[in-house]
Specification:
This protein has one helix and seven strands. The chain has about 140 residues and is an alpha+beta fold. The chain folds into two domains: about 30 residues; about 100 residues, no CATH class. Strand 4 and strand 5 form a beta hairpin. It is elongated. The N and C termini lie far apart (about 70 Å).
Length: about 140
């Protein structure tokens, strides 16, 4: 009896997994075939104080302007002190971004003055695209 339940459970799990794989393959199948490079693109920003020194900021966030949703990759990494590069978007976000570009609202708070700085960056993507592309926006955000 236990063997039948175990076998049934495993069979059910395999069925769900194959359906998910088939769905992903169908989604990719309706994209036109095109050569893509193996690179993995990222778009990021560095925060600086008024003297030009880099900062590790507080309350960093990236949201899509169109619907105020948080972009997943932007919260996935915390910068290291030696290289305070804040990730705004990467190729993992391409399916959430439109081919014509989406405006991303980048926001953070100065670690000691609590001044909030906000900037807009436009990034394009698309499910069938190879990579994301930065269309406009700054690479450095400077606090007063």
């Amino acid at each position: 009896m236990i063997q039948k339940i175990t076998f049934s459970t495993i069979a059910l799990c395999l069925l769900f997994a194959s359906c998910a794989t088939k769905k992903n393959n169908q989604a990719e199948a309706d994209c036109p075939s095109k050569p893509c490079t193996m690179e993995f693109r990222t778009v990021g920003v560095i925060f600086k104080d008024s003297k030009g020194d880099t900062l590790l900021v507080k309350d960093f966030s990236v949201k899509l302007k169109s619907n105020n949703k948080v972009l997943p990759s932007a919260t996935s990494e915390t910068p290291i002190p030696d290289n305070p590069y804040y990730l705004i978007a990467n190729d993992g976000d391409k399916s959430v971004l439109h081919i014509d570009g989406d405006t991303l609202i980048v926001s953070a708070k100065h670690p000691s003055t609590d001044q909030v700085k906000t900037s807009e960056v436009v990034v394009s993507g698309g499910r069938c695209e190879c990579h994301i592309n930065k269309i406009s926006g700054t690479e450095e955000i400077v606090f007063d």
